[in-house]
Amino acid sequence: MCYMTILSTSAKEDLSLYNNEFFQFSPDWEFMPEAKYLKFDNKWLVTAEFGCSCGFRHLCGGSVELGFGEPEDWFPETASTIESTRQVIALIRAIVEKGEHVDCVDGWCNDQEEAEPLDGELDINLETIENLSFRFFENYRFNFVKQ
Questions:
Q1: For 128-142, how does the pLDDT look when each residue is reduced to its tens digit (9 = 90+)?
Q2: Alpha-carbon Rg for the chain in angstroms
Q3: Who is most buried in 65, 108, 118, 145, counting CB within 10 A?
Q4: Torsion region of 67: left, alpha or beta (phi above 0 gives left; psi -120 to 50 gives alpha)
Q5: Whole-number Å distance between alpha carbons of 93 and 26
Q6: β partners of residue 6
Q7: Comparing C-alpha atoms, which of 98, 81, 127, 108 is closest to residue 11?
Q8: 51 has a pLDDT exceeding 80
Q9: pLDDT for 76-125, tens place per residue?
Q10: What is the pLDDT of residue 74?
Q11: According to the model, what pLDDT value does residue 28 have?
Q12: CA distance 10 to 6
């Protein structure tokens, strides 16, 4: 069981061209029932160093009220987790700044056939969140906007 993040976008470009040691975009998302919550045609599985999405910064569903925030000493995170997340949100920001749409769902994958109901949907205003503060929230749909 792992976190799995699936992203959709109106951008038609091949996001796997941006793959590096910190993150990978893969068109192999069909096993993710959470794809039904995404709004745009071009879908991508977003993974980090472990071949899943556990290598990104996350808050589990019950901790979402903590919101976004920079890494804290009292909650240790690896340098690679921080850098992977920073690079992914920077790429999402660049896509949105080009006028494209992006959304994503961060789910807990346990090989289920049906998606769990979402705990909520959030508009993420990229003008108010620094890359270093970004983290995914389990079982939420993020709609990335620039306002």
A1: 999 999 999 999 999
A2: 14
A3: 108
A4: left
A5: 19
A6: 45, 105
A7: 98
A8: yes
A9: 899 999 999 999 999 999 999 999 999 999 988 767 788 889 999 999 99
A10: 87
A11: 86
A12: 14
CA 100 to chain centre: 16
Contact 68, 133 (CB under 8 A): yes
Cβ-based neighbour number of residue 123 at 10 Å: 11
Q: What's the rounded Cα separation, in Å, for the pair 12 and 31?
A: 21
5 contact partners, CB below 8 Å, separation of at least 6: 45, 46, 47, 53, 56, 104, 105, 106, 107, 136
Q: Which two tokens stand for residue 99?
A: 């006028």
b/e per residue, 92-114, with b = 16+ CB within 10 A? bbebbeeebbbbbbbbbbeeeee
With contact defined as beta carbons under 8 Å apart, do 101 and 136 qualify?
no
Q: Give me the numbers of helices (H) and strands (E) for the chain, helices first please.
A: 1, 8
Task: Give the C-alpha separation, 93 to 70, whole Å.
Answer: 17
In the chain, the amino acid numbered 13 is: E
Output the CA torsion 51→57→62→68 (10° steps): -150
